[in-house]
Amino acid sequence: MLRIDRRMIEHFDWITFGVVILICIVGILTIYSATRPPLDEGEHPPFYVKQLLWLIIATIALIIFVSFDYAKLRDFWLIFYIFGIILLVIVLFTGKTAMGAKRWINLGFFSFQPSEIFKIIFIISISAFLENKKSPLSTKDVLKTLLIFGIIPFLLILKQPDLGTALLIFLLTFVMIIYKGLPIRLLLLLLSVGVISIIFLWEILWEGLKEYQKNRLIAFIDPHIDPKGIGYNIMQSVISVGSGGFFGKGFLEGTQGPLKFLPERHTDFIFPIFAEEWGFLGCLILLGLYYLIFLRCFETSMVAKDNFGKLISVGFTSIFLIYFFINIGMTIGIMPVVGIPLPFMSYGGTTLLANFIGIALVINVRMRRFELFYP
What we know:
Layout lengths: L5 H5 L3 H22 L11 H19 L11 H18 L1 E3 L2 E6 L4 E2 L1 H18 L7 H20 L4 H18 L3 H25 L2 H11 L10 H12 L26 H34 L3 H25 L17 H19 L8
Antiparallel strand pairs: 1-2, 2-3
Helix pairs in contact: 2-3, 2-11, 3-13, 4-5, 5-7, 5-12, 5-13, 6-7, 7-12, 10-11, 11-12, 11-13, 12-13
């Protein structure tokens, strides 16, 4: 039976939890506004209701994941990892296809993305794997980590195809390796090999991309080359952000969402909808809330009681940071569109649940930072 020590409750990170809930509520309101019918005529899609239900489920999951000592997870990391890989394999053969990609497993009463669940498993597994390795890592340990946690899941997720998540997993592998300790010579060697490989293999890599992935890169370089085609998303997104001005048009006063000028307005492009309604000032406040989350998560990695807790905190902090910067970057035209949602705001049940489990484990680490000193 799960039991929470009174001292754990006293050290619960209410600030992080409160800010996350606040951002989620802002997200639900923005989803409501983005998906409302034009001129308020017609039926309102229930995306905001579904997101609210997922928020309740995610909050319950958060309570569960802070109720036990995170250190117990390290004993089962291999089982978790094998289970995660099996899910990624299953989705390739029996997954539900949508928008040209097999990313979902349909259980009848709901669908979920194994790649989202795998991110949680990935951080737990690689943290347990690296915890007791000597720092800096040996060349053997680096290559083994890259193969097990970088290359294998990268290829499986890329096959779906989900280029954004695949690149995230590979990048996270490097982040965790560098945090654990990487000899400068080996780091320079890996960077050199990577750059040289891209130069010589670029044509092969380019031919291996799907047509829509090629179009996204072309549109990023010059969206005006086809403003009504491949450059449409980026241009409409930038227009949405700019039209908000300093103070914004006001809640439910935006036009880009309900008039359907902006595609994926309640998922990947939810930030432009928010920016149009709340303006530059509202965006500053929102960015400040995210900054507070990143700061608290980073502090947790510094005060954790053990290396496992430090690595878990660094891993999830990196996920939130990478998702945040890529999503904001692609919506304002400084990064290519890769289908990365904005954490805690974008519509998506599995993603929200995965993010809450991640933040729960970070809070778990912070709660138990004094546990070694308890009688």
